[in-house]
């Protein structure tokens, strides 16, 4: 088979698979039991430990974890489907388990709402619990996202030595979950988005998790906190993933001096030292 034919076959197969996933997602689950414990959404900005925590929660038999169910790359949801209707269909699959899923910071943009409007939509759909997972050192998230873009592993299995990769950060178009933005402006935007999210959640008893405190060294800390917050048993589960880049940024960022110069005099310069 020629390279072009193989590429076409791969694209067709991928399209067919996404179509299958979409149709499967639209099949209603079982009716939602009246005595089910609840539904939770976890907000994050990507590359912040959400995968390791999500897999741990999904391995707990009391939880149905649906991951980033609204991510367009997953092929489950399409914009013509009302988000609340789609969520209710997904919730039916959880049966009597707690239903949970994730949304990245560009969630309001995805649904054409501001943060208060999105929280209102989710609450109306049946979301009873809210988790905010924040990585304070956003620069490390950018490094990780850049490494993945240029061929690095998206996730790193535990008990394996993380490969050392050097990346160049484009200070004019750095890679954020929201897209390509100037480095300082993008860092400020992430900070502002989390502030707006927390303001919208001010009236609810949301759980706040910090990557550096609750996941980086031991993800079981975040797992235990989440289970307690949901009123569930922290059943024993395995930690499947580890940090993809545990090395100092001076050893990781190819243009370290340039990034340091751009961040000098800002409130983000400390990120280079962790």
Task: Outline the fold blueprint.
Elements: H1 3-26, E1 39-44, H2 50-58, E2 63-65, H3 83-91, E3 98-104, H4 107-111, H5 115-125, E4 129-134, H6 138-149, E5 156-157, E6 174-176, E7 179-181, H7 183-200, E8 207-210, H8 211-214, H9 220-230, E9 241-242, H10 249-252, H11 256-263
Parallel strand pairs: 1-3, 1-4, 2-3, 4-8
Antiparallel strand pairs: 5-9, 6-7
Helix pairs in contact: 3-5
Please give the count of helices.
11
Query: What separation lies between the terminal Cα atoms?
Result: 49 Å
Poorly predicted spans? 5-12, 17-23
Q: Compute the gyration radius: what is it?
A: 20 Å
Q: How much strand content do the residues show?
A: 5-15%
Going across the major beta sheet, what is the strand order?
A: 2-3-1-4-8
Biggest beta-sheet profile: 5 strands, parallel
How much helix, percentage-wise, in residues?
Answer: 40-55%
Question: Could you give the count of β-strands?
Answer: 9
H and E order: HEHEHEHHEHEEEHEHHEHH
Mean pLDDT: 87
Q: Looking at the structure, what is the overall shape?
A: globular
Decide which structural class fits the backbone: alpha/beta
